[in-house]
Amino acid sequence: MISQYADQTPSLQYADAAKIGDVQDRLLRKHLAYAFSRSPFYRSLAEKLKLDLNAIGGRKDLVHLPFTSKADLTWRNEAFLAARQEDIVDVCLTSATTGPQATMLLQTASDLSRLAYNEAQAFEIAGLSAKDTLVLCVALDRCFMAGVAYFLGGTKIGARVVRSGSGNAAQHWEMIDRTAATVIVGVPSLLAKITDEAFAQGKDPKKLKIERFIAIGESIRNAELNTLPFAEKLEMVWGAPLLATYASTEMATAFCECAAGCGGHLRPDLAVVEIVDDRGRLLPSGSIGEVVVTPLGVAGMPLVRFRTGDMAYLIDKPCTCGRTTGRLSPVVGRKEQMLKYKGTSLFPNAILGALEGREGFWGGIIEAHEREDGGDRVVLLAWTDRDRLSKEQIASILQAKIRVIPEIVFIDETNYRKRAFVPGKRKRITFYDLRGNSANKWKMQL
Description:
Elements: H1 9-12, H2 17-38, H3 40-49, H4 70-75, E1 88-94, E2 103-108, H5 109-125, E3 133-136, H6 145-156, E4 160-162, H7 169-178, E5 183-186, H8 188-200, E6 212-215, H9 229-238, E7 242-248, E8 253-256, E9 264-265, E10 271-276, E11 289-295, E12 306-312, E13 314-315, E14 327-328, E15 333-334, E16 339-341, E17 344-346, H10 348-353, E18 361-370, E19 376-384, H11 391-402, E20 407-410, H12 413-420, E21 431-433
Parallel strand pairs: 3-4, 3-5, 5-6, 6-7, 18-21, 19-20
Antiparallel strand pairs: 1-2, 7-8, 9-14, 10-11, 11-12, 12-15, 13-14, 16-17, 18-19
Helix pairs in contact: 2-3, 5-6, 7-8, 8-9
């Protein structure tokens, strides 16, 4: 399957809109023909809805096809398999958010080739090359796709790849220091821990001459593409830029920022991206909605119009790097996390984004409770230096930045770390959704 688009991206990134559209439409038609003929899920769906695939000429006709949800993939997992069992060479697991167990995504050899191609091109967009030493501070075990993708992509561009894995901050710092790393891939909150470890050892991170970070799993910019204060602090301490990348296991595709840092460049030969509103209607560029992705060229478990649950918007303005492909904004939140508070719709990370990196603010967690009138009660649990950052000062910052002020409750370091860093979870937990009287229901920030 990879041969259908191999080596197209380098030229396609700089092609005109007509060329990009023609390639996408051709690959989309091929993808749909494969999925609806080989996947039991999509074959039965076509029969049930009496879909006429011959009427699907390209992207503009995708609106006639139904969405695929995480629940579909979880509860009818085996029905998505479009390849023979003997052709499956890798098993990936994704988070169990809609069912009792993690969802499997089965990959063929061609899917692994596609994954390597995908990440190699994403790294090159970010400026990586064969001269780099790439430290992966991300798990490669437990059937996670991300670590495998970064490893395959790094080796494909000829970089020296260091599989630091899911160790603690001290182990990561040792590997970064010993291997003369030039690039680090990791969750920003983990990078902050590694920074603290370096200082605890009396080391200056800037002396390592790291050239860039690839930030995964957490936003480093707000909806206006401005770098968040905590990310600016990391850049200053290390003397290197943070570049964001957006991906998910189901997408099997990564949209990475270039050096301009103004949104992840779309991959027209690997995925079709749509932004839809609450009713599933397409939104124009610049409008925030749910990200819907159709990954192209997947052989094992192909998906059509997969609803990611992430909220973002498309950018069609030219990028200073010269690429003509569209871009995806930073994720502003998860669809189910949207809060209705004092007449305003907002996401939890907008609150934290206004505070993180501020002098005296060390960490925060958002709780959402249901009020008797059906609205949301929003509480900020703040771990701060109370002598330098009072409740009144926090309220003033939030009023200026997001125009609303939640309830503010101070917590100490022990309680913050207990709730933010849960054993077995790869990312910080910064949002607890306690609406609907579910006392143990939580959602990650991203």
